[in-house]
Design brief:
Order of helices and strands: HHHHH
Largest sheet: none
Distance between the termini: 29 Å
Helix content: over 70%
Number of helices: 5
Shape: elongated
Strand content: under 5%
Radius of gyration: 20 Å
Number of strands: 0
Length: about 110
């Protein structure tokens, strides 16, 4: 049950509706929001995660692959483009994973 909670809680915390709801409860309750200034290293690593995410999205939505697939080009050409796109996606995911691990390491040592 704890592992299920650990999986669902970050998803709910990232939900914009949950954030708005928590903000409304704080405002109605009269509590001032405490904003903690994030560490510069964490901000840099988060930007690296966004870069990796964007690189992965480029691989997923690669126009060369989709053009080859939708126009019915040869099987070999489609496989070539699929391999190229999957390599780009994998590189992006590796960048995201590297930055995520670095953030976790930085937060545990801070």
């Amino acid at each position: 049950m704890k592992t299920l909670t650990k999986i669902i809680k970050p998803i709910l915390d990232a939900c914009p509706y949950t954030m708005i709801g928590k903000k409304c409860i704080r405002v109605v309750g009269g509590k001032k929001s405490i904003t903690k200034k994030p560490d510069k290293k964490i901000i840099r690593l988060q930007k690296g995660m966004k870069t990796g995410r964007n690189l992965s999205l480029i691989g997923v939505f690669c126009p060369f692959f989709w053009f080859a697939l939708l126009t019915g080009m040869s099987k070999d050409f489609i496989i070539l483009n699929a391999m190229h796109s999957s390599i780009v996606v994998a590189i992006g995911l590796i960048i995201v994973l590297f930055n995520y691990v670095a953030i976790r390491y930085h937060r545990s040592n801070a």
